[in-house]
Protein: Pre-mRNA-splicing factor CWC24
Organism: Phycomyces blakesleeanus
Amino acid sequence: MSVGPQRAPANIRVTARFDYQPDICKDYKETGFCGYGDSCIFLHDRGDYKSGWQIEKEWEEAQKGNKRFGGSEPGEFEIKDGDSDDDELPFACLICREEFVNPVVTKCGHYFCEECALKNYKKSLKCFACGLPTQGVFTTAKNLLAKLAEKKKRVEGEDVEDDQKDGETAIEGLTELSDSDEDSSD
């Protein structure tokens, strides 16, 4: 053997970590692994960490006491009245964020304006909403067109009713004025 200082091996790097609470192995506590293995002089303990079932149990208990987030009766927050068809169909294009112009639907069931869908297809072969490949298939959204036509009729019908009500009020006011004018002239 040689005497004197020896050169350290180049392929091994030793790191040292100093902890001022030397009763528990810090590496094992943080990562679940200790480089010293069984020869480590510190305690390998992760007992203060909760297991998955303990976390879930605490969550369920917290939800039972919290009426605001899930501790309520089942179905309490369901919307029961109104058309469920309106909820299924979007009211605006996902790309341009405006009302639909010539709406089309992709194979994955997302609705876009025809122009927006084609522009997006030139940039990417995937659906703008979910990222699935569209393969260039954009079909006319007939159900959405029907809903838009129904909505347009409904809006026009409400406008006509409002105009009729306003007209009747004005006519009634005129007749009342004309009756009072006749009384004042006598």
Summary: The helical segments are 26-31, 52-65, 85-88, 114-123, 142-185. DSSP finds five helices and three strands in the chain. Residues 15-68 form one domain. The chain has a mean pLDDT of 75.
